[in-house]
Design a protein that fits this description.
This protein is about 80% helix and about 0% strand. The protein is mainly α and about 230 residues long. The termini are far apart. The chain binds 5-(aminomethyl)-2-methylpyrimidin-4-amine. Its EC number is 3.5.99.2.
Length: about 230
């Protein structure tokens, strides 16, 4: 029988494909992505990861199955420590200090996605919350591992190789599988209305993943910036 996760991926397959073929990821894959767009992405992502880590901590606190607690608590740590280390490497490479980072305003899309996860953590049930968190793992591994496969050994020249390798990594794949198992169990334990809400949260978060890359590619400003 098809599990919830397979159904959710099928439901969003056009979106997932669009993330992979977005110019941000195509240019990241061949190394031609302009540095200012990647720097903008990193500045946004550093802020996103704090919210993501907080939402994961809520999932750890609320899971009905204590066996899942170490996964969500560990993933929160990974987001704010390990992924942060990846960012630090790039900040040094680009000579980006705190002053330069502070000068990049949090984008509308970054604020919307982060707020969405935090609102889901506070106001939704546990099944809906982990369904919203799953694309943050799965979409990144899908993009990272697809790019690595396409590279056919041409990788190390690419300035974005560390990013690609992080998300294509086997440890990251393991996190995707653990999160999918937790989501499938929560879906199986819930009723049809719960599964519909889970599908909605999974889809919305997948949309935000696409929008996050798109907003970095456009160096997304606040349309109201000139009115301040
Ligand atoms: C926007 C976003 N989504 C997911 C990931 C992977 N944790 C990330 N670093 N940034």
């Amino acid at each position: 029988m098809t599990g919830f996760c397979d159904r959710a991926w099928q439901h969003t397959v056009k979106l997932q494909q669009a993330s992979l073929t977005h110019p941000f990821n195509e240019e990241l894959a061949n190394g031609s992505l302009p540095a200012d767009r990647f720097q903008f992405y990193l500045a946004q992502d550093a802020r996103y990861l704090v919210g993501f880590g907080r939402a994961l901590s809520v999932a750890a606190a609320r899971t009905p199955d204590p066996a899942d607690l170490p996964f969500f608590a560990g993933a929160a740590r990974e987001a704010v420590v390990v992924e942060r280390e990846l960012h630090e490497g790039y900040f040094q490479r680009f000579g980006l200090g705190q002053t330069e980072l502070d000068a990049i305003e949090t984008s509308p899309t970054c604020l919307a996605y982060t707020s969405y996860l935090l609102a889901t953590a506070q106001t939704d049930g546990y099944p809906e919350l982990i369904a919203a968190l799953l694309p943050c793992f799965w979409v990144y591994h899908y993009v990272g591992s697809s790019i690595l496969r396409q590279q056919e050994g041409n990788g190390p020249e690419n300035p974005y190789q560390a990013w690609i390798d992080t998300y294509a990594d086997e440890d990251f794949a393991q996190s995707v599988d653990t999160c999918k198992e937790a989501v499938d169990r929560a879906a199986a334990a819930g009723d049809e209305a719960t599964r519909e809400r889970m599908l909605d949260r999974f889809t919305r978060a997948s949309e935000y993943e696409w929008m996050f890359w798109d907003s970095a590619y456009r160096l997304e400003p606040w349309p109201t910036a000139g009115l301040r």
